[in-house]
Here is the input.
Amino acid sequence: MPAIKYKVNLIEDEKLYLQTMVSKGKSAARSQTRVRILLKAAEGMPGKYIIAALDVSPSMVAETRQRCVEEGSEAALKDRSCPGHAPKLTDKQAAHLIAIACSAAPPGHNHWRLRLLADKVVELAYAPSCSYETIRQLLKKHAKTLAKTGMVHSGSQC
Here is the structure.
């Protein structure tokens, strides 16, 4: 049988705190599962038995053990933050694009279309590429603000 790489050792106060969390059941389901993993791991239960007893994935058991050993029991109970990706346009660029969308349409067009605005982003070298969906989300995000400031009136083309 292979040795456990991350052995969970909890002091008595931590065990009491975790047992209280389980008995109250007020925290999120994922946290509850992690609490149970830590308690069983602290008892010395091998990972395969924890996996079977709690019906969780091997990676969840391994990651919970590792985070507890490396960062502490509190950190092991929480999800890591997922920062996502950086926005395609800065706030200043977005404001400029909104101003363009509210201006007169280019020659040959009655009004700005999302694809035209996406092409304008590339033309102005704000981004190497831009989809019309990015523009749609940007305009939707700022539509309420524009309406409140009076820049856009209901029924207008902007």
